[in-house]
Amino acid sequence: MSAPHVPVKRADFDQVMVPNYAPAAFIPVRGEGSRVWDQSCRELIDFSGGIAVNVLGHCHPRLVEALTEQAGQLWHVSNVFTNEPALRLAQKLVNATFAERVFFCNSGAEANEAAFKLARRVAHDRFGPEKHEIISALNSFHGRTFFTVSVAGQPKYSDGFGPKPQGITHVPFNDLAALEATISDKTCAVVLEPIQGESGIRPAEQAYLEGVRKLCDKHNALLIFDEVQTGVGRTGDLFAYMHHHVVPDILSSAKSLGGGFPIASILTTQELAGYFSVGVHGTTYGGNPLGCAVGGAVLDIVNTPEVLNGVKARHEIFKTRLQQIGAQYGLFDEIRGRGLLIGAQLTEGWLGKAGQVLAAAEKEALMVLQAGPDVVRFAPSLVIDEADIDEGLNRFERAVARLVNQG
C-alpha cells in the first residue's frame, strides 16, 4: 500500500524550491489530450504543450502503454550495457533522417553541449587546436549549461557567472553578409536554430540557410542545427531541415522526442561520430530504456503523413483566427512560425507585455506561452482536436478583449 499524499499548495514552492522559476498560481494535477485540470478541478485548454514538449498531448494512450510496458521490464542499466529500446529508437531515427549515428542524452542543453564538444573535437583532430571557434546567432538559445548559454546570443543568460568559454562569436540572424565577414578557417562550427524560438519565433530564410551551408563547406566548418524546439513534427516536417532541403552535419533534438518524458539526442554521420571514441563523451542516463521506449512510440505516431499534414492544416486554422483577432483588437500585428510553433508579435503599444497576455489567458482557462517579452507563443499538441483549437481561441479572444478594454 502506498503512503497517503501529503497536501501541497502553490505557496509551498516559495518555501522549499530554489527560486529560479516563477510558476503560475495554480498547480496542474491531471491532463488528458489538450485539456488540463488543476487542484480545484478547473479545466484549462493547453496551447503551451509543456513548452513544445507534449507533442501528442497529455497521457496519450500509446505513450502510456509504452512507458508502462517498459516499466515492468527494465528501467536503467547505464551505458556499460546497451538496451533494446535505445537500439530500436536509434534505428528509427537513422532510417528517417540524414543521420547514420545517434547519441542519446537527457535534455536539449545536454544535446547541444554534446554537439559543440563534438564539433570542437572533430576540428581539433583534423586541423589542430587553432580551429576551435564557434559562430552563433544573436538572440539564439541553446540551453542552460555554461557552455550552451555562452554559445547562445543572449548575455542575460550568461553574464554573472565568471569568465566565459573563449572562441565564441555572435552575428545577426538571417544576415549572410555578417556571417561571411566573420567566418574563417579557425571556425569549427556554425550553430543555428531553423526557427529562433525563445527570441520570438523567427524563421530562417531559405537563401540564408543555403548560404550558410556553402560557407561552412568552404571553410571546413560543421553546420549544427539546433532542432530542440522545431524537431519531431513541430513544424509540419519531421525535422525543420527537411523543409529547407539543407542538411546539417549535426542536429540536436529533445523536447518533442519524448512526448513529455526526458530524452534528447544528437544525430550525425558515421564519419563525424567516430571522433567520439570510447571515453571521449558520455552520460549515465542517456539512452535510458524508459525514455527510449516512449520516444519510439512518439516517432511511430508523429512520422506519418496523417499527423504531419494535420500539423500544417492546424497551422492555417490558428493563423487565420489569430490574424482576425489581431486586426480586430490591435494587440498584435504579425503571425510568425510554421506548423504548430506560432508567434504573435505584439504591436508597439503593447511591447513588453506578453506576460500580461499570458495572465489574462489563464483567467480565461487557457494556457499559452511567451517568446520573449514581445511575442505570444503557441505550441500545442500536434494532434489537438479542432474543437479544442476553436474553444481555446475563443477563450484567447475573450482574454484579448478584456486586456484591450482595460487599456
UniProtKB/TrEMBL annotation:
This enzyme's EC code(s): 2.6.1.11
InterPro entries reported for this sequence: Ac/SucOrn_transaminase_bac (IPR017652), AcOrn/SuccOrn_fam (IPR004636), Aminotrans_3 (IPR005814), Aminotrans_3_PPA_site (IPR049704), Class-III_PLP-dep_AT (IPR050103), PyrdxlP-dep_Trfase (IPR015424), PyrdxlP-dep_Trfase_major (IPR015421), PyrdxlP-dep_Trfase_small (IPR015422)
PROSITE patterns: AA_TRANSFER_CLASS_3
Record keyword Signal present: no
Reactions performed catalytically: N(2)-acetyl-L-ornithine + 2-oxoglutarate = N-acetyl-L-glutamate 5-semialdehyde + L-glutamate
Coarse class of the protein's main subcellular location: cytoplasm
One GO MF term attached to the UniProt entry: transaminase activity
Subcellular localization, as worded in the UniProt entry: Cytoplasm
Keywords for the protein's UniProt record, in alphabetical order: Amino-acid biosynthesis, Aminotransferase, Arginine biosynthesis, Cytoplasm, Pyridoxal phosphate, Transferase
Pfam families listed in its UniProt record: Aminotran_3
Signal peptide range in chain numbering: none
Annotated pathway: Amino-acid biosynthesis; L-arginine biosynthesis; N(2)-acetyl-L-ornithine from L-glutamate: step 4/4
SUPFAM superfamilies in the cross-refs: PLP-dependent transferases (SSF53383)
Residues the record lists as binding pyridoxal 5'-phosphate: G108, A109, F141, D226, E227, V228, Q229, T284
UniProt cofactor note: Binds 1 pyridoxal phosphate per subunit.
Modified residues (N6-(pyridoxal phosphate)lysine): K255
Co-factor(s): pyridoxal 5'-phosphate
Residues where N(2)-acetyl-L-ornithine binds: R144, T283
Family assignment from sequence similarity: Belongs to the class-III pyridoxal-phosphate-dependent aminotransferase family. ArgD subfamily.
Other facts: May also have succinyldiaminopimelate aminotransferase activity, thus carrying out the corresponding step in lysine biosynthesis.
Assembly, per entry: Homodimer.
Name the record gives this protein: Acetylornithine aminotransferase
Gene: argD
